[in-house]
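Q: I'm writing up a methods section and want to include an example of the input and output format. Could you take the sequence below and give the corresponding predicted structure tokens, formatted cleanly so I can copy it straight into the document?
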Amino acid sequence: MDRLDNTVRPYAWGSTTAIPALLGTEPTGEPQAEMWMGAHPGAPSRTGRGTLAEVVDAAPERELGAASVAKFGPRLPFLLKLLAAGAPLSLQVHPDLAQARAGYEDEERRGVPLDAPHRNYKDANHKPELICALTEFDGLCGFRPPAETADLLDGLGVASLKPYVDLLRAHPEDAALREVLTAVLTADHEEMSRTVTETAAACDRLGGAYAPYADIAHHYPGDPGVLAAMLLNHVRLQPGEALYLGAGIPHAYLNGLGVEIMANSDNVLRCGLTPKHVDVPELLRIVRFEAGDPGVLRPEASPDGEEVYETPIDEFRLSRHVLPEGTAARDLTLPTPQILLCTAGTVRAGEHELTPGQSVFAAAGEKAEVSGTGTLFRATVLL
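A: Here is the clean output for your methods example:
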């Protein structure tokens, strides 16, 4: 197995303390948002044989296995991360595979540069993702039933919210959600800024269920995304709980430390809480205007001690091994590529001793025996 040396991305929304606390290092005072584990060209993990991207490119079938290459191509299909949110991330959705391919081909045909700020599709892949909480983790996921949101907004006593309240109480629900989101994102900027400011003050005064939105408004004053966020379910995950975010589901991470895994893609359509480009027509085409429960996931235990977070896609499979003191060594060898990440205790993976935040890559079929006392996350693919 290859020990991985991973890059930490210093995005502005990152926590200054969460990743250093996990690693047992001193904070630098700068945000440390994401630690990337994988072969993504933006920041591939480093090994003793070169970057993981170079290792895979040199011998895809040996590293990934013939079946994985046949199904996903000669690349590692997933990216594993430690994600530490100290402030809300942008409100966003991801396209499905057909939408990503069509959007990418269209922008290529029109000659939109890949690095253009108004470019929507950086690649032709979809970006389903899963976040598993290591600490309490706050997020927004999917639309709350419109009638409940109408009651929430009505309770603020802000007169300029009345048109949205009336729309949300109309039927059918999907049309009501579409109309309100469209209205919020296309409203006059100055009028919307005043409405958001009044809304934020009321949220701050009332607290309780309004507190998360007061905090969002504190970070993004006057942003129409604050009202868009109030259309969504607020979720607080406990350690070990997870959220799966499929295509078209609006979401945002607000605060906390977690293990995130996703298909290799940079395709994001933003709804707000960002200074970056918001393509409203394309966004409205991609969003799934369906209200419902966000669907908190808890791992399903198998007889061999593996706890699996079940999702409906194949590019990644995330599971967890909790190794109590005195547990016999476990053989985690698979015919697929895998990354093993320690998040608690001390775990030996082959010849490597892993402490929290450390990880290894095991090629397809490579012997992967683990032992020790701690928690180990396993990322692989489903064939």
